[in-house]
Amino acid sequence: MGKPIITLTTDFGTRDGYVGAVKGVIKRINPDVEVVDISHEVEHFDILGAAFVLNNFYRYFPRGTVHLAVVDPGVGSERQPLLIKSQDFFFVGPDNGIFNFVLQNETITDMVVLANKKYFLTEPSVTFHARDIFAPVAAYLSLGIDVNEFGPTAKECLKLVIPEPRLSKGKLSGEIIHVDGFGNLVTNLTAESLRSKKITAITVGRRRIERLTGSYSEIEEGKVGALIGSSNLLEIALNQGSAQEALRSRVGSAVTITFK
Q: What ranges in the chain are assigned the alpha helix state H?
């Protein structure tokens, strides 16, 4: 069996040393754990974006991996610090919707409110739960401490309200739910929802795209196109450029599919 693994997903950036503090706490408790950075460049306070990033990678890690995810605009409030155990993974972070897709896709076996201060740093700060609560809990989990040692069962977990596509005669209306680091616009329109439709146009703002392409490279250089991305969702992309900048679009911008 290999080393235990803890992954980190945050909106901390790398300028101020917050990530280093989290890693230091983890390594002090379990020097043998492998800590894997996923991203520290999630947009500040973007819980949906963090949930999307988490959903794109967590299942590709070995069974037993601890996924620590912290984008926490409500730190210091009454929101719960949470530990979730599925059949294959552990998830640690704030109960603010960041585990939305995990709850949809995983078989959850335990959900615990982090309350046992034995597994926190002494006198946790009200502004840095990632360092003082979530990091030590993740580290102790990697040492094999039982989930139920950390606190009582959580009665519920906050879920985000994800916009649903709207279907009308000859039209499917959706919106952008994520913008990745390349400026690709990820929508809430799934491959399955488009599979049986003969698309006549994809409209984003004033830009009309005639058809789906199979890959980024099939889009003419400098042009905007549409394809099904690795998340199995419709993406709007600019070959070797940023679709977000070209179309001046953002999360919440409308995307409309017309079909026969």
A: 18-29, 47-57, 100-105, 129, 135-142, 191-194, 243-247
Can you give the residue range of the structural domain that contains 238? 166-259
One domain for residues 15 and 141: yes
Residue from 155, 157, 138, 135 nearest 147 by CA: 138
- Is residue 153 a contact partner of residue 213, using CB atoms and an 8 Å limit? no
Domain count, the chain: 2
Higher model confidence: residue 159 or residue 139? 139
pLDDT band per the 50, 70, 90 thresholds, residue 1 = low
pTM of this prediction?
0.89
Helices (H), 128-198: 129, 135-142, 191-194
Task: Say whether pLDDT at 78 is over 90.
Answer: no
